[in-house]
Design a protein that fits this description.
- By secondary structure, the protein is mainly alpha-helical.
- The chain is built from six helices and no strands.
- α3 packs antiparallel against α6 and α4 packs antiparallel against α5.
């Protein structure tokens, strides 16, 4: 896994469920330590850069939003965090500690064959009619 993806996956795992404290309460001691180490390494690398810190806070609050992910990806690259051995090692440790197995992606989908209607997402309201339309429509 390339460094930016690993850092993003580790942070998303740590923030799974929308609560950063969740990993501290429910994960193993090793994962808690690795998450804290990653946050400390990022804080050191960002060095008070408000734009980078804001992108990190937004990502921890909503790691599934692609725009938020892209914004943090850009900040990790801009600040050099993606190439910082301390940050990369901390992210790898978090993934190895098992936190990387938490939900990082909300939906996964593989479709084989014909699809005659598909709805994916939260709170769907879908009416599908196949073949002859019902009377009155």
């Amino acid at each position: 896994m390339e460094p930016v993806s690993m850092i993003l996956a580790a942070l998303a795992a740590g923030a799974a469920g929308g609560a950063v404290d969740g990993v501290r309460e429910s994960a193993s001691r090793a994962a808690r330590g690795a998450y804290d180490r990653l946050r400390t390494a990022l804080a050191g690398r960002f060095g008070g850069d408000r734009e980078a810190e804001a992108a990190l806070a937004r990502y921890e609050a909503d790691p599934l939003d692609p725009a938020v992910r892209d914004a943090l990806d850009a900040q990790l690259t801009r600040t050099g965090a993606a190439g910082d051995p301390e940050v990369v090692d901390a992210a790898a440790a978090l993934v190895r500690a098992g936190a990387g197995a938490r939900v990082v992606q909300k939906y996964g989908l593989q479709v084989d064959g014909d699809v005659h209607g598909l709805a994916q997402g939260d709170r769907q309201q879908v009416t599908m009619h196949f073949g002859t339309p019902p009377r009155g429509e």
